[in-house]
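User: Please fill in residues for this 419-position structure.
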C-alpha cells in the first residue's frame, strides 16, 4: 500500500514516526509524500502550543478530503479523541501509549524487529529512549497527553543503535519527553549516564547527540561522558525565564541562580560547547521588569543559540486561569527583542569558531555547496569539491560566517557511507 506519514512536534514524535515508517517499509509498503497519492494517511500530531493544535487540525482536514484511510495519533489526538471521532466516524484515533498499534492495524502479524531504513531518517536518526513526564509545569499539557515517565531498557536501545550502525549511520540522537528522567523507573534503576556508557562500550556509533535536558539533571558523570569525545559537545537546556517569580509561577524546579551556577559549571568543564536554550516570553504576570531579569540572565550566559516563543494559553493547564495575562502586542515586542539577542549570541559563537577545525557528517549536497553539522551544533556550508555522497565524515576548518551558518573548507574525508 502507498502510505503518507506526517509528523508534527518534538523529536520523540519524530522517532516514533520513523520507527512506524521503518516497519511498514519492511513489510513492503511504499511511503509517499502526499495524502492525495496515498491509500493510508498517518498523522502524528502535536499539542504543545495553540499553533501546533491548529497545524494538527489542518493536516487532519486535508487528509479527510482525500480517499485515504486516515489514522491520527500523537498528543493532539490523545487530548481531542472524542472531538475527532465526532468530526468523522471513519477517523482511526490511536492514543499515544498504543501508537505502534497502527502498524498491526495496517499489517497484522508483522514483526517489529524487521526494519528497513525510512526516508525520514536522513543522516541523524532519532531514537526514543524515554516517554512521559512527572513534572507539572503550569503551562504544559503534555503530561496529560503522554502520562508518567517511562524508559526503554538499555539493551533495547543498544540493539536499535547497532542496527543503525550496521546500516552505515555515524550519528544518532537520543530523545525523550523528559530525557533526564531516563532509567529511574527501570529495575534495576539506572540513569542517562549509564545508558551512554553502555552505548559507548558496546556500539561503534561515531557520535551520540542528546535532545533537550533539564538544568538540574546535568550530573558530573554526564559531563564526563561528553568529555569522552563521541558524545556531542552540545546541550539544549530549557531556561524558560530568568526571573524567580515567573519560574515559581511556571512550577519550574530551579531558580535563576541555580541555572546560572550550573551553566557556568558546564562551560568551565567544556570550552566551546554549544549551549542552547528555550525562552518563553509573555507568561502571565511577566512585567517589563521581570522580563528584563530574563534579558540580564541571558546576557551573562554564553548561549550559542536561543529558541524563543511567546506563552501560548493551553486550556486545561493552571496557567490558563492565571491573572495578568500579557497582551499579544507586548508578547510580540518581547519575542522580537529576545530573538535579536539570540541572533547576536549565535553570531558571537560562530565568530569564536572561525579558524578552528571540526568534523562534520555531510547532510546535503547541492550543485555547488555541501552542508553538515559539527559536534557543537554549528551548521556548516562548504564548497562541494570532490564530495559526492552524503554521509561522509569530513574534517573541515571554519573560515567565516554566512547568515547564521559557518563557511568552511574541507581538510580530509573518510570513506563514504554505503546507504
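Assistant: Residues filled in for all 419 positions:
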Amino acid at each position: 500500500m502507498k502510505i503518507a506519514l506526517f509528523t508534527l512536534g518534538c523529536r520523540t514524535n519524530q522517532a516514533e514516526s520513523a520507527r512506524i515508517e521503518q516497519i511498514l517499509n519492511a513489510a513492503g509498503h511504499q511511503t509517499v509524500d502526499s495524502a492525495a497519492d496515498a491509500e493510508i494517511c498517518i498523522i502524528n500530531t502535536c499539542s504543545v502550543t495553540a499553533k501546533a493544535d491548529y497545524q494538527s487540525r489542518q493536516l487532519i482536514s486535508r487528509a479527510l478530503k482525500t480517499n485515504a484511510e486516515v489514522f491520527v495519533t500523537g498528543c493532539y489526538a490523545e487530548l481531542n479523541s472524542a472531538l475527532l471521532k465526532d468530526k468523522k466516524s471513519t477517523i482511526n484515533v490511536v492514543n499515544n501509549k498504543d501508537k505502534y498499534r497502527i502498524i498491526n492495524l495496517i499489517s497484522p502479524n508483522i514483526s517489529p524487529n524487521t526494519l528497513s531504513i525510512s526516508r525520514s531518517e536522513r543522516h541523524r536518526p532519532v531514537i526514543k529512549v524515554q516517554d512521559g513526564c512527572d513534572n507539572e509545569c503550569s503551562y504544559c499539557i503534555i503530561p496529560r497527553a503522554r502520562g508518567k515517565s517511562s524508559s526503554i531498557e538499555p539493551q533495547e536501545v543498544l540493539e536499535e543503535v547497532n542496527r543503525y550502525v550496521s546500516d552505515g549511520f555515524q550519528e544518532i540522537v537520543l530523545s525523550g519527553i523528559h530525557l533526564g528522567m531516563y532509567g529511574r523507573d527501570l529495575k534495576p534503576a539506572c540513569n542517562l549516564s549509564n545508558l551512554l556508557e553502555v552505548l559507548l562500550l558496546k556500539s561503534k556509533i561515531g557520535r551520540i547527540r542528546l535532545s533537550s535536558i533539564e538544568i538540574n539533571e546535568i550530573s558530573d558523570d554526564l559531563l564526563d561522558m561528553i568529555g569522552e569525545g563521541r558524545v556531542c559537545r552540545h546541550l539544549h537546556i530549557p531556561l524558560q525565564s530568568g526571573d524567580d517569580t515567573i519560574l515559581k509561577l511556571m512550577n519550574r524546579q530551579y531558580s535563576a541562580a541555580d541555572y546560572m551556577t550550573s551553566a557556568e559549571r558546564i562551560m568551565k568543564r567544556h570550552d566551546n560547547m554549544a549551549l542552547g536554550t528555550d525562552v518563553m516570553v509573555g507568561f502571565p504576570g511577566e512585567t517589563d521588569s521581570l522580563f528584563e531579569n530574563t534579558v540580564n540572565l541571558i546576557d551573562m550566559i554564553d548561549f550559542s543559540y536561543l529558541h524563543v516563543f511567546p506563552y501560548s494559553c493551553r486550556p486545561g493547564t493552571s496557567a490558563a486561569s492565571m491573572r495578568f495575562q500579557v497582551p499579544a502586542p507586548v508578547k510580540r515586542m518581547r519575542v522580537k527583542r529576545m530573538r535579536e539577542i539570540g541572533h547576536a549570541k549565535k553570531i558571537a559563537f560562530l565568530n569564536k569558531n572561525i579558524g578552528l577545525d571540526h568534523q562534520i557528517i555531510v547532510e546535503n549536497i547541492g550543485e555547488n555547496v555541501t552542508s553538515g553539522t559539527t559536534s557543537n551544533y554549528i551548521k556548516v556550508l562548504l564548497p562541494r569539491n570532490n564530495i559526492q555522497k552524503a554521509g561522509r565524515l569530513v574534517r573541515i576548518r571554519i573560515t567565516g560566517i554566512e547568515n547564521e551558518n559557518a563557511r568552511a573548507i574541507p581538510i580530509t574525508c573518510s570513506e563514504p557511507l554505503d546507504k
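For context: Residues 357-413 form a domain with the OB fold (Dihydrolipoamide Acetyltransferase, E2P) fold (CATH 2.40.50.140).
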